[in-house]
């Protein structure tokens, strides 16, 4: 698949100091803070989260290691394995919040709702009627959409009332909100678009030759990024019709690097960041044309 329209160039490698990236999907999160004019990135490895922040000219860069501890354990501060790390932007804060998910909690399909005030978080509710392990979740309009290992898409309202249960028949790795649709990445390398309101599949693309590991969306330019174990990253242009019209506008590989995560660094899609399985650097690509 050739480049068609956009030219991204590998500009630099950003080190993960004293660490690397675990072999798990969706293992990268990026957030930009307009208040500090800093970009934040984080990956997970074993029992730690590795964060990096930098300014727009890369003249200033800070690295941190955040260990994950089981605070409820009888053993004081026992280490736990980190399964996912995300930066979340909250209206009440000027900088993003780092959320670390571990295997210390429930893995049987229970969904927890947390209330966050200042630096404190408390459990505000849960939904435990479904017993399939959760693969991924995303906010979609005013709903929460959850994908599980059976291939179901469960749609919840803000009070965790289950509104819909859509069976897709897919082995889903990743879900994101794209325009008015939901995009699902699968273990056979497809990206499938769904209309959640109509409970209908709208389109599918054979994006990669191996499992999708991450998806991201840049709303400013209607661009979708996909990464895979096949070492390729691709950028897709989406046109907002009744049925999605999707075309590949950039494709390249990071040789011999199974890609674990990929994120745009801004809403315009002017640059993106990649992480690789067991690699101690992240790959920063910038749009050059």
Automatic annotation (TrEMBL):
Record flagged with keyword Thylakoid: no
Keywords: WD repeat
UniProt keyword Transcription present: no
WD repeat residue numbers: 205-246
UniProt-recorded name of the protein: WD repeat-containing protein 54
Domain WD repeat-containing protein 54 beta-propeller: 144-283
Family matches, as Pfam families: WDR54
InterPro entries in the cross-refs: WD40/YVTN_repeat-like_dom_sf, WD40_repeat_dom_sf, WD40_rpt, WDR54_beta_prop
PROSITE patterns assigned to the protein according to its UniProt record, in alphabetical order: WD_REPEATS_2, WD_REPEATS_REGION
């Amino acid at each position: 698949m050739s480049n068609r329209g956009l030219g991204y160039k590998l500009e630099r490698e950003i080190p993960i100091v004293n660490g690397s990236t675990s072999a798990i999907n969706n293992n990268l999160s990026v957030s930009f803070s307009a208040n500090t004019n800093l970009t934040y990135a984080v990956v997970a490895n074993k029992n730690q989260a590795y964060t990096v922040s930098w300014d727009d000219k890369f003249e200033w860069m800070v690295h941190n290691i955040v260990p994950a501890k089981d605070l409820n354990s009888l053993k004081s501060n026992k280490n736990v394995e980190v399964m996912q790390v995300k930066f979340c932007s909250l209206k009440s804060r000027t900088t993003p919040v780092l959320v670390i998910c571990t295997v210390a909690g429930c893995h049987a399909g229970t969904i927890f709702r947390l209330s966050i005030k200042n630096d404190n978080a408390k459990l505000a509710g849960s939904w435990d009627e479904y017993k399939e392990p959760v693969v991924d979740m995303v906010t979609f309009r005013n709903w929460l959409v959850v994908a599980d290992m059976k291939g179901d898409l469960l749609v919840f309202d803000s009070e965790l009332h289950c509104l819909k249960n859509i069976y897709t028949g897919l082995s889903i790795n990743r879900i994101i909100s794209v325009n008015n649709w939901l995009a699902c990445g699968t273990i056979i390398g497809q990206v499938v678009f769904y209309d959640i309101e109509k409970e209908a599949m709208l389109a599918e693309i054979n994006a990669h030759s191996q499992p999708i590991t991450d998806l991201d969306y840049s709303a400013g330019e209607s661009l979708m990024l996909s990464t895979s174990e096949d070492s390729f990253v691709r950028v897709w242009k989406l046109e907002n019709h009744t049925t999605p019209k999707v075309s590949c506008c950039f494709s390249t590989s990071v040789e011999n690097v199974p890609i674990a995560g990929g994120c745009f660094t801004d809403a315009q899609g002017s640059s993106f960041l990649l992480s690789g399985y067991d690699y101690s650097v992240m790959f920063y690509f910038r749009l050059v044309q």
